[in-house]
Specification:
The chain is an alpha/beta fold and 208 residues long. The protein has 8 helices and 6 strands; from the N terminus they run E-H-E-E-H-H-H-E-H-H-E-H-E-H. The chain has a 6-stranded mixed beta sheet with strand order 2-3-1-4-5-6, with helices on both faces. The site of guanosine-5'-triphosphate has 22 residues, from helix 1.
Length: 208
């Protein structure tokens, strides 16, 4: 691993996306610090961590961005005046049509495009025990393709492979979807450190 004083040949930005609670932040904690926590809190706003690694004899700094799977949590990242009234419009059960329009046009797009800007790779994460998180993958893919560079390297990631007895998405279904959409695919466990390294290495090497 490269030390702090070593020169960096490349910086690659990679984004993590997918529903809330699929394990994005723990995948990142495992990759960046080799840590895992069972009582991980939902991410608020946008965070990133870096790790420098050597790929084909070059020093590559991976800058991994992580955000909330829930739209309303992303918005908390933006510094602007929150009257009690504006704050309420961010809560989905209080959304009215005009509020939703304000929400979509002004705030949501700003964070979303900043998040994807310059990203060369993406991990599109679902939870193998939550069917809904897999069913939402096409929506995430649409958002990604709408905002990111068209050559972005995308890896579909089925996380929580340690929970085999609770599996709700078959490996075959995911593999078939990934082939159809031209995505790389792996099942990971942030908890057991299975394939996390492999997922990032594959994306970074492919960017390279
Ligand atoms: P948001 O920030 O809300 O978008 O969620 P997230 O996708 O970042 O999820 P997070 O990493 O916070 O993980 C959610 C929960 O799943 C936590 O309780 C984690 O400990 C747990 N978790 C994450 N990865 C795994 C895994 O590989 N196996 C198991 N069993 N649990 C995991
Ligand atoms: Mg998170």
């Amino acid at each position: 691993m490269a030390g702090a004083g070593d020169k960096v040949d490349y910086v690659f930005k990679v984004v993590l996306i997918g529903d809330s609670a699929v394990g994005k932040s723990q995948i990142l904690a495992r990759f960046a610090r080799n840590e895992f926590s069972l009582d991980s809190k939902a991410t608020i706003g946008v965070e990133f961590q870096t790790r420098t690694l050597v790929i084909e004899h070059k020093s590559v700094k991976a800058q991994i961005w992580d955000t909330a799977g829930q739209e309303r949590q992303r918005h908390h990242a933006i510094p602007y005046h929150l009257s009690s009234e504006t704050y309420r419009v961010l809560l989905p059960n209080k959304l009215t049509t005009s509020h939703a329009c304000y929400f979509n046009n002004c705030r949501y797009r700003a964070v979303t495009s900043a998040y994807y800007r310059g990203a060369l790779g993406a991990l599109l994460v679902y939870d193998i025990t939550k069917r809904q998180s897999f069913d939402h993958i096409p929506r995430w893919l649409e958002e990604l393709r709408g905002h990111a560079d068209k050559n972005i390297v995308i890896m579909l990631v089925g996380n929580k492979s340690d929970l085999e007895e609770e599996r709700a998405v078959s490996t075959e279904d995911a593999k078939e979807f990934a082939e159809k959409e031209n995505l790389f695919f792996l099942e990971t466990s942030a908890m057991q450190a299975t394939n996390v390294e492999n997922a990032f290495q594959t994306v970074l090497t492919e960017i390279f």
